[in-house]
Design a protein that fits this description.
With 126 residues, the chain is of the alpha+beta class. It is built from three helices and seven strands, in the order βαβββββαβα. The strands form three sheets. It has a three-stranded antiparallel sheet, with no helix packed on it. A two-stranded parallel ribbon has the order 1-2. It has a two-stranded antiparallel sheet with strand order 3-7. The longest helix is centred in the last third of the chain and has 17 residues.
């Protein structure tokens, strides 16, 4: 598993992803690597001149849930069961905010990411 993360991602911050990758490795999966792309925002693979700020975009970055093998979701903060069909309502009440930056990827970053994923796949025999 190769986590390709954006340093400035306001929707899917890289820090919790790095922590999750570490937990996966600690559980015995040694084929886990991470890379944080400097200066990148959410959806950094979408080419564009500048990241755009949308003040009305729903932002779920503060909504942390753990999904168990059986599909049940629990709040990472409180341990509360979050019914799957009520997740959106739960998030709007408990953790959703408005506003985020998106996109603004560069051709250079996209080319680097392509090289990185190819190197990762080759490293593990794919």
């Amino acid at each position: 598993m190769f986590f390709m993360l954006a340093e400035l991602d306001e929707q899917t911050p890289h820090q919790p992803c790095l922590a999750q990758a570490a937990r996966i490795k600690e559980a015995g999966n040694k084929r886990v690597e991470t890379k944080v792309y400097p200066g990148a925002h959410h959806a950094w693979e979408e080419l564009g001149a500048e990241p755009e700020y949308d003040p009305k975009a729903e932002n779920y970055s503060q909504c942390r849930v753990w999904i168990e093998d059986d599909g049940k979701m629990f709040s990472a903060d409180t341990g509360e069961l979050v019914p799957e069909d009520e997740w959106h309502a739960w998030a709007k009440t408990n953790c959703m905010t408005l506003g985020t930056k998106c996109c603004g990827g560069t051709r250079e970053r996209k080319e680097a990411a392509t090289r990185d994923i190819i190197a990762f796949l080759r490293k593990y025999g794919f």
